[in-house]
């Protein structure tokens, strides 16, 4: 008999069927039917070594899972459905149920999670180990909706390359500062080179920050990662990235005006860069800004032609002068703007 002395192959299949949601007795009964063909419940119980009082519940369970067919009349006859078809349908039902459970659970838990004041937004979370850091890095960069600032070494880029390509296909503007001299990365908006041992940084949309120390020599050093949503640290690291890493680095490849003619930014200086490059090429440029009025704090949308841009690192000024359709002149400022008319959250540059 099949189950008198289980060989390793049968043990493995029994375990796998249990992983698909079958009980041990259901798995035994199904294998027996696949092997023997049409059988009565008594024959199945005997062959599969299932207690007779249990066999009806076992066969009912297999029928509900779509793994067996049952004849009318007495005695009832049972036949296994073709395994490839039956198990595929079973997996599809499992996947559908898991997805429904996931969506319902996430919806409920997020309503609680987001509804409470989250003190940990101000915390800095330490991440130990290269593997965990990489997982968090993938998670962080995939949160980008408009723009990603990232600095990296070649060994980090090798793992990130496909992730960055997917972001670009979604229309995310990526500014990458490499600490290694590598071939131009023409699949991103902005590739720059800074010959230094720097911190690996990832900032998507001013929403969150991951920075990693001691990652320049993965063979000898153990990196340490830090993750936070603290707005003060986000501002510090964003300004460090833009004004130290980016502004003091060597441009390797810039896609603005070459292959990219429309982008959204949350950082004013990068929007200014794209505007200036496009205007230098003699192209018409249109700007759409979502933000708030500086005086009243009311949400607003401003659209028009950029007639001037101002960026003075030493005076801490970065603004766009916009002429609207009704000939109003508006000054657009970036994060924390106080002297301009509008504080921008998202700046869309279109040519």
Main sheet properties? 8 strands, mixed
Helix content: 25-40%
Strands of the largest sheet, in order across it? 4-10-9-8-5-6-7-11
Overall pLDDT level: 91
CATH architecture heading of the largest domain: 2-Layer Sandwich
Please give the count of helices: 9
Helical/strand content category: alpha+beta
**First and last CA, distance:** 76 Å
Q: Can you identify the CATH class of the largest domain? A: Alpha Beta
Binned strand content = 25-35%
Please tag this protein with its features.
single chain, 351 residues, alpha+beta, Arc Repressor Mutant, subunit A, Endonuclease, Chain A, SH3 type barrels, 8-stranded mixed sheet, 5-stranded mixed β-barrel, 9 helices, elongated
Topology diagram in text:
Layout (H helix, E strand, L loop, with lengths): L7 H12 L4 H13 L2 E2 H8 L3 H13 L3 E3 L6 E4 L2 H33 L8 E5 L1 H12 L5 E6 L1 H16 L3 E6 L11 E4 L6 E5 L4 E5 L10 E5 L2 H16 L3 E5 L7 E4 L2 H13 L5 E8 L5 E14 L4 E7 L5 E5 L8 E9 L1
Parallel strand pairs: 5-6, 6-7, 16-17
Antiparallel strand pairs: 1-3, 2-3, 4-10, 5-8, 7-11, 8-9, 9-10, 12-17, 13-14, 13-17, 14-15, 15-16
Helix pairs in contact: 1-2, 2-3, 2-4, 3-4
């Amino acid at each position: 008999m099949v189950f008198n002395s289980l060989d390793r192959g049968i043990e493995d299949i029994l375990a796998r069927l249990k992983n698909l949601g079958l009980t041990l007795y259901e798995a035994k009964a199904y294998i027996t039917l696949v092997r023997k063909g049409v059988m009565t419940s008594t024959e199945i119980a005997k062959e599969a070594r299932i207690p007779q009082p249990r066999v009806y519940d076992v066969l009912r369970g297999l029928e509900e899972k779509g793994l067996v067919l049952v004849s009318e009349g007495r005695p009832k006859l049972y036949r296994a459905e073709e395994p490839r078809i039956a198990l595929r349908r079973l997996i599809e039902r499992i996947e559908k149920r898991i997805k429904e459970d996931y969506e319902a659970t996430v919806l409920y838990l997020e309503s609680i999670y987001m509804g409470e004041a989250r003190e940990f937004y101000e915390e800095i979370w330490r991440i130990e180990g290269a593997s965990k850091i990489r997982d968090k890095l993938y998670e962080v960069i995939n949160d980008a909706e408009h723009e990603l600032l990232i600095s990296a070494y070649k060994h980090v880029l090798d793992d990130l390359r496909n992730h960055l390509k997917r972001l670009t296909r979604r229309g995310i503007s990526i500014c990458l500062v490499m600490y290694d001299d590598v071939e131009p990365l023409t699949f991103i908006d902005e590739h720059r080179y800074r010959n230094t041992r720097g911190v690996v940084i990832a900032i998507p949309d001013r929403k969150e920050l991951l920075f990693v120390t001691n990652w320049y020599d993965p063979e000898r050093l153990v990196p340490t990662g830090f993750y936070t949503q603290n707005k003060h640290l986000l501002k510090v690291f964003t300004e460090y990235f833009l004004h130290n890493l980016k502004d003091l680095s060597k441009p390797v490849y810039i896609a603005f005006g070459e292959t990219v003619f429309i982008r959204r930014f949350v950082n004013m200086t990068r929007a200014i860069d794209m505007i200036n490059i496009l205007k230098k090429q003699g192209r018409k440029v249109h700007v759409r800004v979502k933000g708030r009025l500086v005086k009243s704090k009311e949400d607003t949308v401003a659209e028009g032609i950029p007639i001037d841009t101002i960026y003075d690192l030493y005076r801490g000024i970065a603004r766009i002068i916009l002429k609207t359709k009704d000939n109003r002149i508006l000054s657009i400022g970036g994060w924390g703007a106080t002297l301009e008319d509008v504080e921008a959250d998202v700046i869309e540059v279109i040519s």
